Amino acid sequence: MTPPRVADPSVHNAPSLTYFVEGMDCASCVQKVERMVAGLPGTGEVSTSFTRQTLSLQLNEAQTPRRTLEGHLRSLGYQPALLSAGPHPAAAGDHAGHPHGHSHDHGHHVTPAGTPWYRTGQGRLVVLSGTLLLLAWLFGRFEPALATAGYVAATLLGVWPLARKAAASLRLGDPFSINLLVSLAAIGAVAIGEAAEGAVVVFFFAVGELLEGVAAGRARAGIQALAALTPKTALLVEGQGTREVAAEQVQVGQTVQVNPGGRVPADGVILSGTSSLDDSPVTGESVPVAKGPGDAVYAGSINTDGTLRLRVDRAAADNTIARIIHLVEAAESSKAPTARFIDRFSRWYTPGVVLVSALVAAVPPLMLGGVWHDWLYKGISLLLIGCPCALVLSVPAAITSAISAGTRRGLLIKGGAALETIGRVRTVAFDKTGTLTAGRPQVTDVVGLTVPREEVLRLAASVESGSSHPLARAITQAAQQAGLAPAPATAAQALPGRGAVATVEGRALGVVAPRHALSVGTLAPEVQRTVTALEEQGRTVTVLLDGATPLGLLAMRDEPRPDARAALAQLRALGLNTVMLTGDNARTAQAIAQDLGLSVQAELLPDDKLRQIAALRAQGGVAMVGDGINDAPALAQSDVGIAMGSGTDVALETADAALLQERVGGVAELVELSRATMTNIKLNLAFALGLKALFLITTLLGFTNLWMAILADTGATALVTANALRLLRWTPRGLSTSHLKVTQTKRAPVSSGRTPV
To answer: Do the beta carbons of residue 76 and residue 172 sit within 8 Å?
Structure first.
């Protein structure tokens, strides 16, 4: 979905309108509509989505009446139906996902989404013109005069909507459209007595447009199906019983029950019950995941056996499925560099085709004594051969198919630019905690220096009680298991890359990294030796400080994800360098890095990470993989930011891609998908341009007729589309969940910048 164009002051309080626009089912259609709307006075907050085929905008009807907007849409060949009209932009979006409405201002029927092709306007045009073409051919076997009339009728019927669209585009500032080329060719064919070939021209072009719409529908189907995953109703727990309510009415904080075989109605956390959940509709994870109290669940997941009660954490409009749909729709506005180049190229290419065709048709007869009929015929053929349909479609069709295929495997990609870049990076940089490791550290050692071990754990848990950082959770859980009740804390504050501080029982306490403890006080030599010994075992050590006085040490260990080693090996097999960038101490980081087989830069503050990313970018491009607030700047600074699906909202919004399955192997899959997509695009472009070059030569030499010319255009479009749709069936050659048989790791979101990161 394209980002809204900000309204000027004259439309600030104008009503918001949302239309379902039949026929706006491809990226070029969206661009045509956007250019038209941008030229209208009194419009603002314009956003479009070809996934839902919707147009939303604020419209000051004193400057541009609603009927004028709808008339312009129809003149471009689209049929608008008003879905909602309200005073606020947000209201319009509430119904944008239901393309079955009708305009309250006119009675024109709009075909609902999902209608069979033969019942659409384009489908009816193909059937009718094809029938006329067949009848004309049959009449031609008995009465040639009737055949000619039939061919002329078929041509005029097929060219009329194209000519209207061409005229509308010309009036609205887009003079050299594809519709203009085909209209000129078809009318020219009739004018020189080749009505049969003119009829074939418009028929095959109509078939080509129909195939584009069908292909776009197939590419969108996987995304649209996500909206149907969330059940319509939920069992709301009230007292000792349950009551069935609409799922969209369930509010954050309420408790719902999910029975065996049912779908989870909302994102939340399990309060009671244990069951295996099939997350494949949401994350692509192929193996059901065992979950129990405290584990997060996704709306749309299937509860396979046990009865669960869960606390709702996200409203229906903000659940995981809604966020996935939003991210994929937003991807439409981010064009790949190749697509932007093709767009710029086509702006010059199409006028050039018209000019060359005119010169070929006119110069030889006027200056060289050529036969007008022959050279007009060649000029008309060049108009068709030069149609940029296949060229323009080659990139967006492949990108849309690839994004859809990735989404089904739990790989969210926010647009063509990110998809194209991922396959070109030279280095992949990883955060440690929650990315290469499972993000579930456990306290392994508690050392009392001036107070007992239990007091160290109790006071540390008091400082960390308000944080959901993995290390903080490890400390508070250890205290809970030991039966220690944390004391109330005030003035709690996170120190990014260093630790946390708070006032507990009147004392200014801190749980900080050893290097930060040394910067504010001193550690005795024997304490430093203990820290070193623990870190050499791959454990993260924090120091409990009272002011500048150390009270004790806590050591935690976070194990690498089960698939991390194999995933990093796969990245190296793809020719990529791998590096860990972490705020953890050097000894702990080195122990993890050696186990996984990658290089490491440790003890990095957020600013240090940015400098490392900048250095790696200078060496040929870098992708950053992370999940915490500390990672957000690095994700934004890198060529491609990749967030683990359980990461913070900040990381997910900043990143260019997200891994819903929380598998490191997803990074290698993203690289493979990017490279497969770029190979597909290159094949499409080579085929489209090569076929046009071949037919250009054969036309000038007199070997190509109009029948072959239209096949050069429509045939190339069909083959390019079919090749792009192959990406819908893409599967990675390397890692997969079935090969690794990895169980999904579950953990709480990171919400504060801490050491390690």
So the answer is: yes
Q: Residue 67 class from Cβ within 10 Å (0-12 exposed, 13-18 middle, 19+ buried)? A: exposed
Give Dmax (Cα) for the chain. 110
Q: Which two tokens stand for residue 610?
A: 């940015």
Average pLDDT value for residue range 39-45: 83
Pair 415, 640: CB distance under 8 Å: no
- What radius of gyration do the chain's Cα atoms show? 31
Distance CA 352, CA 350 (A): 5
Tens of pLDDT, residues 484-516: 999 999 988 888 778 899 999 999 999 998 988
Q: Is the peptide bond before 756 cis (omega within 30 degrees of 0)?
A: yes
Give this prediction's pTM. 0.68
Helix, strand, coil fractions of the chain, as percent rounded to 5: 50, 20, 30
pLDDT at 99: 38
Beta strands in 646-725 (DSSP E): 657-659
Q: How far is CA 342 from CA 336, 347, 651, 692, in A?
A: 10, 9, 32, 16
**Domain 323-437+560-757, CATH class in plain words:** alpha beta
Q: What span, in angstroms and rounded, lies between the C-alpha atoms of 592 and 570?
A: 18
**Token pair for 334:** 């981010």
Please report how the helices 121-140 and 195-226 are oriented relative to each other, as an axis angle in degrees rounded to 10. Answer: 150
Inter-residue contact 99 to 20 (CB < 8 Å)? yes
Contacts of 300 (CB under 8 A, 6+ apart): 226, 229, 230, 263, 264, 281, 282, 319, 320, 321
User: What is the number of H-type helices and E-type strands within the chain?
Assistant: 26, 26
Q: Give exposure, 405-425, as e/b (b: 16+ Cβ within 10 Å).
A: bbbbbbbbbbbbbbbbbbbeb
Active site residue 608: no
Q: pLDDT tens digits for 49-76?
A: 766 678 888 888 888 888 888 888 888 8
- Domains 233-318 and 323-437+560-757 agree in fold: no
Q: Please tell me which residue in 25, 174, 267, 431 is annotated as part of the active site.
A: 431
State percent of the chain over pLDDT 90: 18
Which pLDDT belongs to residue 496? 75
pLDDT exceeds cutoff 90 at 570: yes
Where do the structural domains in the chain lie, given as residue ranges?
A: 9-113, 233-318, 323-437+560-757, 442-557
Domain 9-113 sits in CATH at 3.30.70.100
Contact 339, 333 (CB under 8 A): no
Return the minimum-mean-pLDDT range out of 101-110, 146-155, 295-304, 426-435. Answer: 101-110
Higher-pLDDT residue of 685 and 552 is 552
For the ranges 81-85, 548-552, 708-712, the maximum mean pLDDT occurs at 548-552
Between CA 267 and CA 426 the distance in angstroms is: 37
CATH fold of 233-318 reads 2.70.150
3-state secondary structure of 171: helix
Task: Give the residue from 679, 691, 690 showing the smallest Cα distance to 723.
Answer: 679
| Crossing angle between the packed helical segments 178-191 and 372-385, to the nearest 10 degrees | 160
User: Domain 442-557, what fold?
Assistant: Calcium-transporting ATPase, cytoplasmic domain N (3.40.1110)
Q: How far are the Cα atoms of 159, 408, 586, 646, 728 from residue 221, in angstroms, in the given order?
A: 30, 11, 48, 26, 11
